[in-house]
Amino acid sequence: MKEAFVPEYRTHSYLEAFHLRNPGAVVNDGPLYRLPFGSIFPNSISAPAIGVALGALEAFREQSQGRVNLRDGSRLTEDPFTQFRLAESAAEVSSAYDRMRGNMSEMMAMASAGKEIPLTRRARYRWDSAKAVDWSMRAVDRLMEASGGRGIFLSNPIQRAWRDIHAMRAHIGNNPERAAAVFGRPEFGLPPTDIRF
């Protein structure tokens, strides 16, 4: 846009959001509107990553059913290394999913009770959302590696999941190192240096 002007009253700073001074909360008094923006926005990024990983798991299960080793005629589903990769990936994706649902339930319970969510919990939610993307990416990476040469075909949904999850992980909000600092500072009693949580 060129020569656009946004009046001051149409803006809302991260600092105001961090201190839970959201002007919309005056009009919208439901618990959802009392949740910190910095605790909600990362979930909107991590949820699709979990969905991509769940889709990759499903595609891997389906593709593996019909695969046979050309050298010895064994079925891929009987290979213990393939089973291990599937199990590891499923555990990571389930952990990410359960953690994110648990965090949202906890936040909504506090907001519904009229309680302010402590900074230490907000920092933990921030870490968990970045870690959920990391777990999801690792799960998809493992499945891609186990897919063999056909994994890179453009027609293969695992290849698409691999590209998508890496694009999601590249978002700065999904950087586990940055999120670890957000989490770690309050854990050690240090004041936050990042106010986007």
Number of strands: 0
Order of helices and strands: HHHHHHH
Cα separation of the termini: 29 Å
If you average the pLDDT, what whole number results? 92
Looking at this structure, what is the CATH superfamily?
Butyryl-CoA Dehydrogenase, subunit A, domain 3
Radius of gyration (Å): 21 Å
Number of domains: 1
The fraction of residues in strands falls at under 5%
Strand and helix layout:
Layout: H1 14-18, H2 24-27, H3 37-65, H4 80-112, H5 119-146, H6 157-169, H7 176-187
List keywords for this structure.
about 200 residues; Butyryl-CoA Dehydrogenase, subunit A, domain 3; about 65% helix; elongated
Tell me what you see in this structure.
This protein is mainly alpha-helical. It contains seven helices and no strands. The protein has helices at residues 14-18, 24-27, 37-65, 80-112, 119-146, 157-169, 176-187. The protein has one domain (8-187): Butyryl-CoA Dehydrogenase, subunit A, domain 3 (Up-down Bundle), CATH 1.20.140. The two termini are 29 Å apart.
Short account of what is shown:
The protein has helices at residues 14-18, 24-27, 37-65, 80-112, 119-146, 157-169, 176-187. By secondary structure, it is mainly α.
